[in-house]
Design brief:
single chain, 151 residues, alpha+beta, Zincin-like, 8 strands, 42% helix
Length: 151
């Protein structure tokens, strides 16, 4: 299996980050999974990613989500990296992934959408991470090192 459910402590981080920075997601149902395999994209280590669920995924997750609608988003976090970075970097990573969300409450279908980066990152994340602009590169280096040790 490539994915596994995260422990309650990780779900709590996602909830806390959502409450603090993304109140518009208060009613969004978000599934969080650990990705157990190294993922690269464009030559860079993928620390995490978020996806809006498809109709099929929503259907398959209705029971688990305790909703007739299933989950709205799925966040994937690299387990090796997430379990080996500082708490502040965990918050930065989750906040970055949630920054991809956009709520369009006038939508006739689902209000939950995804957006890309403003620039290579998000302007707001650059401001919030001004004390440690290299956090994602540092986390990726930790992950690459750990994966190399595992091989």
């Amino acid at each position: 299996m490539r994915y596994e459910d995260v422990p309650e402590s990780v779900k709590m981080i996602v909830r806390n980050v959502g409450e603090q920075w993304f109140p518009e997601l208060a009613n969004a149902r978000i599934k969080v999974l650990f990705d157990l395999k190294k993922k690269m994209s464009g030559g860079k280590m993928v620390l995490g990613r978020i996806q809006k669920t498809t109709d099929l995924l929503r259907h398959l997750t209705t029971e688990e989500s305790n909703s007739d609608e299933g989950y709205d988003y799925i966040i994937y976090l690299d387990k090796m990296i997430f379990n080996n970075i500082e708490d502040e970097d965990k918050i930065r990573l989750v906040r970055h992934e949630l920054r991809h969300t956009f709520c369009d409450f006038d939508s006739r279908t689902t209000p939950y959408k995804l957006i890309g980066h403003d620039i290579e990152d998000f302007e707001e994340e650059i401001r919030l991470n001004g004390d440690d602009m290299a956090w994602s590169r540092r986390c990726a280096e930790i992950g690459l090192s750990l994966y190399e040790q595992e091989e």
